[in-house]
Amino acid sequence: LRRHRATGFGLEEKKPYTDGVITGWGTVEGRTVFVYAHDFRIFGGALGEAHATKIHKIMDMAISAGAPLVSLNDGAGARIQEGVSALAGYGGIFQRNTRASGVIPQISVMLGPCAGGAAYSPALTDFVFMVRETSQMFITGPDVVKAVTGEEITQNGLGGADVHAETSGVAHFAYDDEETCIAEVRYLIGMLPSNNRENPPVVPSGDPAGRRGDVLLDLVPAEGNRPYDMHKVIEELVDDGDFLEVHERWARNIVCALARLDGQVVGIVANQPQALAGVLDIEASEKAARFVQMCDAFNIPIVTLLDVPGFLPGVDQEHGGIIR
């Protein structure tokens, strides 16, 4: 029920409850999860002092309780009418994102246009979900881009779900509708521990751990220069052939996924011979490194499937800093 206390610019005449953000906690499959959700109907979801204080509080509670934090983002950035107070609120959010990094899972769900400060916090979290034709992320919008560089581009062309899922690598997952997106968020939470001191949930499977994988003899060709789909290999190895691929459409020459073996969650890092022969380039290396760091933080064992000719040679790769 908190309301802002700002004056000027007509704000004193409009003091809606919640101040544009809803915070709380609930359960996903019986496990506690903390959440905050921007309400675009109130000040366009823009962040002010009271708005930020509510987010700070729920983030502190999530860290203290050792439980995942989910943010449902649909906001216009800082509430400029409140000036420095709004900007300081973002600083508090970023500081807590950093404190929580590697301690509790942080998941950002983009459900609308998020510009400026509203795009910074999701970039600091473990996973970013986006919805096609609905959510966008960018530092500056199309109007500013046109004014500064002369380039004309739409919101989706600048920072839509497909752009961030395929080109920038900012989004880990992209879906066609909000219902599917939220369902996949719940599925991901079920594969992660509540914090870095716990192990991921074990889910018994009817898929025998000791079964033979004779199909692999046909999937992997004897000829070293013949491509094949690593996804089919992973399907044969994991419980019930079910896995959740991270960054599915970015840096496709390497596959990163969460799956279960004998009910235990594992992270899978696998070269993909069907894309650039599975070679390692800058983006693939960055993708794998980020995934391994996440698995390390949350006690997830890693299974590595190797079929790689080496690093991609070239001037662009060297100048891009592949040595790093």
Structure in words:
By secondary structure, the protein is α/β, with parallel strands linked by helices. It has two domains: 179 residues, 2-enoyl-CoA Hydratase, Chain A, domain 1; 104 residues, 2-enoyl-CoA Hydratase, Chain A, domain 1, CATH 3.90.226.10. Strands 1-2-3-4-6-8 form a six-stranded mixed β-sheet, sandwiched between helices.
CATH classification, class level of the largest domain = Alpha Beta
CATH fold description of the largest domain: 2-enoyl-CoA Hydratase, Chain A, domain 1
Low-confidence stretches: none
The percentage of residues in β strands lies in 15-25%
Q: Give me the number of helical elements.
A: 11
Oligomer: single chain
SSE-based structural type? alpha/beta
Query: Using only CA atoms, what is the Rg?
Result: 22 Å
Span between termini: 49 Å
The CATH homologous superfamily of the largest domain is called 2-enoyl-CoA Hydratase, Chain A, domain 1
Q: Which series of helices and strands comes N to C?
A: EEHEHEEHEEHHHEHHHEEEHEH
- Write down how many β-strands occur, each being a DSSP E stretch of 2 or more residues: 12
Residue share in helices? 25-40%
Q: Tell me about the biggest sheet?
A: 6 strands, mixed
How would you state the average pLDDT, rounded?
A: 90
